[in-house]
Amino acid sequence: MKGTSSQRRLVLASSSPRRVQLLAMLGLPFVQDPSRAEEPLPAGPAGTVDPEDWALRQALRKAKDVARRHPGALVIGADTVVELDGRLLGKPQDRQEAMAMLGALAGREHRVASGVAVVDASTGRAATGTRLTRVWMRPLTRTEIEAYVATGEPMDKAGAYAIQGLGATLVPRIEGCYFNVVGLPLPLLADLLSLFGVRVLGPERILAHPGPGASGR
Ligand SMILES: Cc1cn([C@H]2C[C@H](O)[C@@H](COP(=O)(O)OP(=O)(O)OP(=O)(O)O)O2)c(=O)[nH]c1=O
């Protein structure tokens, strides 16, 4: 069938193990080829950069960079940032910065923005989107922050926490897409892929899993 998921090669332009796990959940075959095209976060005054604009720009950069080495493929790029008081927080450089980020986030609401870009390497066409999730972190004592940072979990995560890990105990409430916080908003990604004819729940699934429904019994 023309334009179906079985015929488009998917490439994930990411080094993130979380994004690999999340994309694997969709059950579509893909290869991983990380990009190094991400820009450092802007150091300007608070409120000068919109988190969704920033995440989208980085997602597109990553996808376009990797698309150059995969002719004919559909390339997926994503980027996630945390925003607090108009400032963007990326991944902490060291444990001290992780402590400072968690100290600032503790007891407050912040926002997590992810951008996703799907680039068709054969035409250069791109489909993009963003999602914003509100996240409430409970108050934390200094000892709790130290203990959490000592686990190492915060080190490669935007905002220095992982909602999908031990960090789940720090977050009593969110509003918006959970997968957006983990780094790849799956409902958005499925919508973007469908624009290229890749359907997560296309008829190929029925052929691949013939059961009572498919046989008509
Ligand atoms: C807030 C939060 C972020 N994160 C992660 C998702 C991303 O991997 C990371 C944000 O960094 P990114 O720069 O978006 O991604 P990355 O450098 O890990 O991977 P790549 O650029 O190669 O795609 O933070 C979590 O895993 N859990 C969380 O709760």
UniProtKB/TrEMBL annotation:
<dbReference type="GO" id="GO:0009117">
    <property type="term" value="P:nucleotide metabolic process"/>
</dbReference>
<dbReference type="GO" id="GO:0005737">
    <property type="term" value="C:cytoplasm"/>
</dbReference>
<keyword id="KW-0378">Hydrolase</keyword>
<comment type="similarity">
    <text>Belongs to the Maf family. YhdE subfamily.</text>
</comment>
<dbReference type="InterPro" id="IPR029001">
    <property type="entry name" value="ITPase-like_fam"/>
</dbReference>
<feature type="site" description="Important for substrate specificity">
    <location>
        <position position="80"/>
    </location>
</feature>
<dbReference type="Pfam" id="PF02545">
    <property type="entry name" value="Maf"/>
</dbReference>
<feature type="active site" description="Proton acceptor">
    <location>
        <position position="79"/>
    </location>
</feature>
<comment type="function">
    <text>Nucleoside triphosphate pyrophosphatase that hydrolyzes dTTP and UTP. May have a dual role in cell division arrest and in preventing the incorporation of modified nucleotides into cellular nucleic acids.</text>
</comment>
<dbReference type="InterPro" id="IPR003697">
    <property type="entry name" value="Maf-like"/>
</dbReference>
<dbReference type="GO" id="GO:0036218">
    <property type="term" value="F:dTTP diphosphatase activity"/>
</dbReference>
<keyword id="KW-0963">Cytoplasm</keyword>
<protein>
    <recommendedName>
        <fullName>dTTP/UTP pyrophosphatase</fullName>
        <ecNumber>3.6.1.9</ecNumber>
    </recommendedName>
</protein>
<dbReference type="GO" id="GO:0036221">
    <property type="term" value="F:UTP diphosphatase activity"/>
</dbReference>
<feature type="site" description="Important for substrate specificity">
    <location>
        <position position="18"/>
    </location>
</feature>
<keyword id="KW-0546">Nucleotide metabolism</keyword>
<feature type="site" description="Important for substrate specificity">
    <location>
        <position position="164"/>
    </location>
</feature>
